[in-house]
Amino acid sequence: MSMSFLSFRGGVHPPHFKEATARKGVERAAEPKVVTIPLQQHIGAPCEPLVKPGDRVKVGEKIGEANGFVSSPVHSSVSGEVKQVARMLTPTGEAVCIVIENDGLNTVHESVIPKGKIEDLSGKEILNIIKEAGIVGLGGAAFPTQVKLSPPPEKKIDTIILNGAECEPFLTADHRLMLENPEEVIYGLKAMMKVLDVNKAFIGIEDNKKDAIESMKKAVEKNDQIQIVGLHTKYPQGAEKQLIYACTKREVPSGGLPMDVGVVVNNVGTAAAISNALKTGMPLIERIATITGKGIKEPKNLLIKIGVSFKELIEQCGGYSGTPGKLIMGGPMMGLAQYTDEIPVIKGTSGILVLTPEEAKLPEPKPCIRCGKCVEICPAFIQPLFISAYALQNMHETAEKYNALDCIECGSCSFICPSKRPLLQSIRVTKREIIAKKRKVK
């Protein structure tokens, strides 16, 4: 059966760099001796610690309580003794962390028991299981999943889309998941469909992963509610608005959200985590991540416990090949550069990328030549050159008039710019300023 591959307007074609790990099956990482678990590893309010130094904890035990609506609880990924609760460095800045010494026994907490079958649970019960399991978006944004699945009553949702595009170069964690555990992805998707009471779902996968498309099609062949959609391999094909347009031809309005057009988007890894929480009762304490790049000796896809240090995982991949030029959590387009490897893996760590010094060298930016390439390829239909220019002049109100907040921070503009201008970086700054000002006004 031939598929017509779908897409969106704009976007770029960065090299994939996925060959190093695309065919490597997921291996379980070695047991960490110590884990450092941040109480802030999701968008929203940080958790309150539930343990203190000297306490003993078990695998899957809740150690951080989410009190805000937009928040997500945190659980221990090991059994052992709490050594300290203190502010420490994490990949996204400083946060209070719980340091636990692993006793190596992996004693599972009493609360970790199967929660029942989807058909026996109500949508409300499933939603609560997802919340209590600390499940957040595993594509990298780490938005609490139960919030996405609780739209206000006036927003009628009729479609769920799972993102299996994994358009970010270097990363292959979702690809491996769809090959190795397609039924977990489908089970988690069915649970979400029950929560939102919808009977139509799409799973979007880029056409450079033909094996994943086949694997997922096989997993849904008896299901007419779930459709596997082949997408053109183009960046940022996995971005929410672009994915929605490719699958449904609906356009999310400027300043709007997917739910404004009746859609909820989640990542395939998030769906698998939901399946695991229902079937085993285990909350989100581990995830698949791709450890890769020319700066790594033996790139791998690893199943890693939350809280293990980047340094330890890099050592398990043969260590650095030469001097590292740049260390990034995530991929090269949207990842966050780090200045140390002594930081813990968090729920949003989809990958650890190490570039060589040659690859990491940033060219000197030249003046904008007004070629318009950034406008042509911008998938959010904004004008990066103008927004960036206003940002660099601290003219944030003008930048806002140019719809700076519609920027999805995909980095396509910086990638395509012949003058190598820091377009994404400056737009990011102005977005933070605009949002901070809005908060003050409130």
UniProtKB/TrEMBL annotation:
Cellular compartments per GO CC: plasma membrane
What does the entry comment about cofactor binding? Binds 2 [4Fe-4S] clusters per subunit.
Main subcellular location: membrane
- The enzyme's E.C. designation: 7.-.-.-
Keyword Repeat in annotation: yes
Supply the InterPro entries for this chain: 4Fe4S_Fe-S-bd, 4Fe4S_Fe_S_CS, Ion_transpt_RnfC/RsxC, Nuo51_FMN-bd, Nuo51_FMN-bd_sf, RnfC_N, Soluble_ligand-bd
Q: Which residues bind [4Fe-4S] cluster 1?
A: C368, C371, C374, C417
Biological processes annotated in GO:
electron transport chain
Read off the Pfam families from this record.
Complex1_51K, Fer4_10, RnfC_N, SLBB
Where along this sequence does the record place binding of [4Fe-4S] cluster 2?
C378, C407, C410, C413
What is the protein's quaternary organization? The complex is composed of six subunits: RnfA, RnfB, RnfC, RnfD, RnfE and RnfG.
Reported function: Part of a membrane-bound complex that couples electron transfer with translocation of ions across the membrane.
What is the name attached to this protein's record?
Ion-translocating oxidoreductase complex subunit C
